[in-house]
Amino acid sequence: MTTPQTDTAPTQGHAANKVLSVDAMGGDQGPATVVAGLSAFLSDEREARVILHGPKAELEPMLAKHRISDRVTIHDASDVVKMTDKPSHVLRNGKKTSMWSAIEAVRERQAAVAVSCGNTGGLMAMSMLRLRKAEGVNRPAIACLWPSRNPSGFNVMLDAGADIRADQDDLLTYALMGASYARNGLDIAQPRVGLLNVGTEEHKGRAELKVAHELIGNAAIIGDFEYVGFIEGGDLPSDKVDVIVTDGFTGNVALKTGEGTATLISELLRGALLKNPLSMFGALLARGSLGRLRKRIDPRRVNGGVFLGLNQTVIKSHGSADATGVAAALHLAYRLAQSGFSDKVAARVASAASLAQDAGTESETDGLNTNTGK
Amino acid sequence: MTTPQTDTAPTQGHAANKVLSVDAMGGDQGPATVVAGLSAFLSDEREARVILHGPKAELEPMLAKHRISDRVTIHDASDVVKMTDKPSHVLRNGKKTSMWSAIEAVRERQAAVAVSCGNTGGLMAMSMLRLRKAEGVNRPAIACLWPSRNPSGFNVMLDAGADIRADQDDLLTYALMGASYARNGLDIAQPRVGLLNVGTEEHKGRAELKVAHELIGNAAIIGDFEYVGFIEGGDLPSDKVDVIVTDGFTGNVALKTGEGTATLISELLRGALLKNPLSMFGALLARGSLGRLRKRIDPRRVNGGVFLGLNQTVIKSHGSADATGVAAALHLAYRLAQSGFSDKVAARVASAASLAQDAGTESETDGLNTNTGK
Hints:
The structure is a homodimer of 374-residue chains.
Chain A lengths: L3 H5 L10 E5 L7 H14 L4 E6 L1 H11 L5 E5 L10 H7 L4 H10 L5 E4 L3 H12 L9 E7 L6 E5 L9 H18 L6 E5 L10 H17 L2 E6 L11 E3 L2 H26 L3 H9 L1 H10 L8 E4 L4 E4 L6 H16 L2 H18 L3 H8 L5
Parallel strand pairs in A: 1-2, 1-4, 2-3, 4-11, 6-9, 7-8, 7-9
Antiparallel strand pairs in A: 5-6, 5-10, 10-11
GO biological process, one term (chains A, B): phospholipid biosynthetic process
Function (chains A, B): Catalyzes the reversible formation of acyl-phosphate (acyl-PO(4)) from acyl-[acyl-carrier-protein] (acyl-ACP). This enzyme utilizes acyl-ACP as fatty acyl donor, but not acyl-CoA.
Pfam families (chains A, B): FA_synthesis
């Protein structure tokens, strides 16, 4: 069993903990954008090294141009996973792709964390096939960062859309994995975990949420987190909670709703300020403050969905990410790589799962029964 | 059967179509706020009349102060439904409450639409008991307005939280009711209806969504709407769609997430502009434009969740609504009252339900099977 201490203790400086595996291809902006983001990241992190996956002949001149050839090893891969490829197609025909190669490098422990801007479904399918689910995990999840009123500026929400279903046991696993991610990714010693529902009263919500409410409450000590109970959609950006647990359907809708609302307001704000000369002049005077605000809620700064529940960690960067977005995803990956996160989260979930098994398998049996379809 | 024409044709001017039934009690701000909102509404709508429910001795001086005594009839009711009362308690002990009295007035056709700021669960339970579900409706829904890029400034989303479950048949009913509401409440002759999902591809989403996708597509002609297919969370404020159909769990989370995001950004914007004297001066110059923006996204302007699927229409105003918010809910109620909306939506759903029955009851049997629990 992993004790709470080992989860926050610094790990020994394995060489691989300084190495990231990066898929150069598959993003909407092409490999030049990935390399530009890589260059920005490497100039901030002097000890970091990268394995870059894609067509060598195309990538070599880009690295030379940014003068980062000495810190980047290219793994030549001729094929690319397209945004429109279905997961099943990717699994059958993907062995020569840069995405496959990027995952192989973490599988073989040459690098600690893999990063790709490619197709989410394909990346998750390939990651599950090659890296396998960690012990005690039934459904892996995607964790995203949500701008919040907390000191770190962010909350963690999972599942953001890896699987449209989650039963009570999955939700418990998400709580454990999310708490470990908040500890290692956001540096919060004892994260506060909340379960997303339509009200905060105990009698509200779906049947599996009421059971998960009990399970997560009981796991707070093993998981070294504080359970704050049910929370509502309005609490997603709040400072009441650090980790928000929900199923991938609800999480995906909430994430896209939040992004859509933020985009609408930004557009309306820009439109309002450009409406007349007086407000344009006003905006000019306030531009320093408005710029800082824009940076605070910039979706590129929260770029990086982390796949949790596999034996290694994979980060999905937005397909449309620009160099700033790619660099943000790489910084997040490096932070997790250095903390030895993959091993810690696996140990945490495995220990909780084995304890739950010792305590009797009632809830797990329920879980299997509710897995049928709906 | 109701033809599409009758759904948009003006109804004959029954006296009751000019009368609203308003619960003066149960809001967080007390009856003085409701009466202030009522006064603002009545000065805009010269032909409107109101039946106001609550303790006569308390309300009479308020009406006199606003000089609206001649246009408001008080129905004396001594009890109040509290925000903390559970629906079961309200049903057992609520007969002398102002909320009960407000619903009775529409049940007896003295008024066309009822409005209350009280407890949502209690209001829905009482409305279902007294007004009964309309023919063809299994689960009533709450429709809310969402600020959008559309010319009207709003989209309709339902269910915003009346019921945490919805099967394929419920989702079809929501599409029919939502389209009728958009036609009568937002004046959109042929509303575009979308079904909320985690992606727009046909293979995505839960099983019941794939069936609902078929059902709603087939009902577009009867319902006199255009079906645009699956939409995502980011499309909620878009101009691709007028009516968004989803289950009450997802809808409630999305609604509160959108509100929470908008509130966070407003706070951050205010904070940014007050940060230094230069930006404060800038904000002063831009205040006209910023004020218009604030008004455009003001949640008080979209105040009013409409209960659909009952034999009469009930509007839930925010419990914390101020006079502006109450007036907004009353304006919406009056618009629906004048259009004869309650009868139109009931006729529309009943005709679709009977057509679906003629076409065979396969999907309805599926609906019953999926009603078990989860």
